[in-house]
Amino acid sequence: MSEYKKKDIDEISGVETTGHEWDGLKELNNPLPRWWVWVFLVTCIWSLWYFVVYPAWPVAGGATKGTSGYTQFKELAASQAEIIARQQVYIEKFEQADFDKVLNDPALYSFATAGGAAAFKDNCATCHGSGAEGSQGYPNLNDDDWLWGGKVEDIYTTLQHGIRVHNDYDTRTSQMPAFGKEGLLKTEQINDVVDYVVALKGGHDAASLQGYDIFQQNCASCHGADGKGLREFGAPNLTDAIWLYGGKRADIYQSVFYSRAGMMPAWKNRLDENTIRQLAIYVHQLGGGE
Amino acid sequence: MSEDSTNNNPDDIQLFAKQERIYPKRVSGIYRNLKWIAMIICLAIYYLVPFIRWDRGPNAPDQAVLIDLERGRAYWFWIEIWPQEIYILTGILILAAILLFFVTSLFGRVWCGYLCFQTVWTDLFIWVERIVQGDRNKRKKMREGPWTKEKVIKLGITHAIWLVIAWCTAGSFVLYFNDAPTLVRSFFNFDVSPVVLGFIGSLTFMTYLMAGFAREQVCTYMCPYARFQSAMFDQDTLIIGYDEKRGEPRGKHKKGADWTGLGDCIDCTACVQVCPMGIDIREGLQMECIACGLCIDACDDIMDKVGLPRGLIRYDTERRLEEKNHDLKISPFRILRPRSFYYMAIIAIVGGIMLYSLLTRSELDMNILHDRNPLFVQLSNGDIRNGYDLKILNKTHSDHIYALQVHGLDGAVIEMVGAGDLDELVLGVAADSVGQFKVFVHAPVEPQEPIEIEFVLQETQTGISDRYKSMFISERPH
């Protein structure tokens, strides 16, 4: 400090001046520590190194590549590869385990449901909704009512071959006649049978109704004499609370007049075996699995 | 540029200040002894705590203080913290900050002078320097002299010891995050992960740099605490003060000579020579002063020798020193001031909240999350079903079986979905872990406003229970 003493010192602050003066205003000099300057220079050098090694400068058609060849895409690919490698352990076990084993093994079970949940969002949510809640014409997969069966194997078959897929011989298929449109029943007969079905779903004793005979002759072959449906034909239970196409009288009339025939794609050749099995387990655990 | 001769020449101005090398002289006295004691206690705590064992049973680590990042647990003797209890850390930080304010408002910068790790490690490194190279004058002479063989050897030994200390410091830090004996053993087997080595390497470097080289620069230029302490200071805060009235005019004094016209300060610069910050306390209160009190020890020693009363430099307050300078009546110390009570109140409140949360911390926690999609499901028999995600936090160190019940819903039936056969009355959760379950509740309910229900979870043997309020939804929200 001694070399500063001969210099001009500001009286009030006791700090030396830089020698710059403007109309009597003097600039004070509070020197920066020298190491601070060194740190600053080191960071400058660091930035030069960074410019060279990493992608940095925008140029026409992108940016300078950098000698390290680093990109975030590569980083993403690397972390994805790491995840796949981690999954591989489970995939191998999963491939070898049958449904029964998976349903009883907590680790495989959560692996399957996690994979199934992701695949469901990608492939199934379009029609069934992201919560598998469905909507009119698209079954709610959370409930306990199944057209084609709610065992995990049944769900698996439905997923593989779909419903009413025209070029798949193993597809789930059946056809309800359009009783009104095709002239199989007269309008008053349709009204009678709809009344009967409405009574059936209300849990009333409907055998005395006029529609009873019409139902037994035309509908019972698929829906059963008691109206409880038959899964071989995908014929819904008409006595429960679940109505895929609506349970109002007008909805039921529409169904009888025009018939209903929803379809679902076969996923066998679109998704791999593991994904389909994961989906089957995922759907099975949504709440309605049998 | 003006030709005025009193102006400095801008070309001669140093805009960047070189770090002045400081060679603190050895001193002994009450404050030096306090500093030794504080240093030994601080270092002992830091280096030894990871090795303290604390029995927590067979399924938990037996290290008394451990932050297990991998498994997300922090252990502090009998306290065990899960990630969701991280607010306790917030509490500790708030408490530490307020305690610091409190102590500073009472006694000035005692933290800086005695307890701060920068001070403690710098002190330790200076001690090493002195042991190897000798006291102030020897060090200074050797440092400023030519490169001799002796200089190379002595500097080499100093830096080697510094590096060893720095390495131990870094190693100890890592021990707080790992099982200490295991990690120490794996060191001797050269079987340490690159992450651990990376941490040790960078912390060794930083310790070496900060305590060996940066030293007082940290306090003066880097530390924010040193700067904002001015906000905690007032006229009644204890500072290290030089009694100007008594000391000035300073001047050399020969033994037995007349004191007329001279103050008590004999300008021996002992206070400057011992200062680890390299300042002259006689210039008054300065931002650089860390209030370590070594200048008091040095000056008292000199005063004893010249036969004058001690306390030319002493702990005092700005108000009292000022009053003395102006020959006013000197007011008494006012250590406890309104701000002391504000700080105490805050400490009591924060400490009380933390104590309460630690005392009421249960070993069982239940979380229930109602499904959002779908909100509810109609079943074929007309019942309504709601889905919930259930998490059971078993914070004990043994496996437990829990029974789940739902209250407030007539005809409610609980159904469990998951791997294997699950029974809501027999939910097993392993020691020190979170059990996750999918719960369905269905009941014959007509569509209506959400029904408030309550889940009750009870440990089947001890009877410890937890409750969680939730909803049963049966119609779409309007």
Tell me what the structure shows.
The complex is a heterodimer of chains A (290) and B (478). Chain A is mainly alpha-helical. Chain A has three domains: 62 residues, no CATH class; 118 residues, Cytochrome Bc1 Complex, Chain D, domain 2 (Orthogonal Bundle), CATH 1.10.760; 72 residues, Cytochrome Bc1 Complex, Chain D, domain 2, CATH 1.10.760. Chain A contains eleven helices and five strands; from the N terminus they run E-E-E-H-E-E-H-H-H-H-H-H-H-H-H-H. In chain A, the strands form two sheets. A two-stranded antiparallel sheet of chain A has the order 1-2. In chain A, a hairpin with a 2-residue loop joins strand 4 and strand 5. In chain A, helix 4 packs across helix 11, helix 6 crosses helix 11 and helix 7 packs across helix 8. The N terminus of chain A is likely disordered. By secondary structure, chain B is α+β, with helices and mostly antiparallel strands. Chain B has three domains: 201 residues, no CATH class; 90 residues, no CATH class; 109 residues, Immunoglobulin-like. Helices cover 40% and strands 18% of the residues of chain B. In chain B, strands 7, 8, 9, 11 and 13 form a five-stranded antiparallel β-sheet that branches. In chain B, helix 4 runs antiparallel to helix 6. The longest helix of chain B has 27 residues. Chain B is elongated. The termini of chain B are far apart. The N terminus of chain B is likely disordered. Chains A and B meet through strand 1, strand 3, helix 1, helix 3 and helix 4 of A and strand 1 and strand 8 of B.
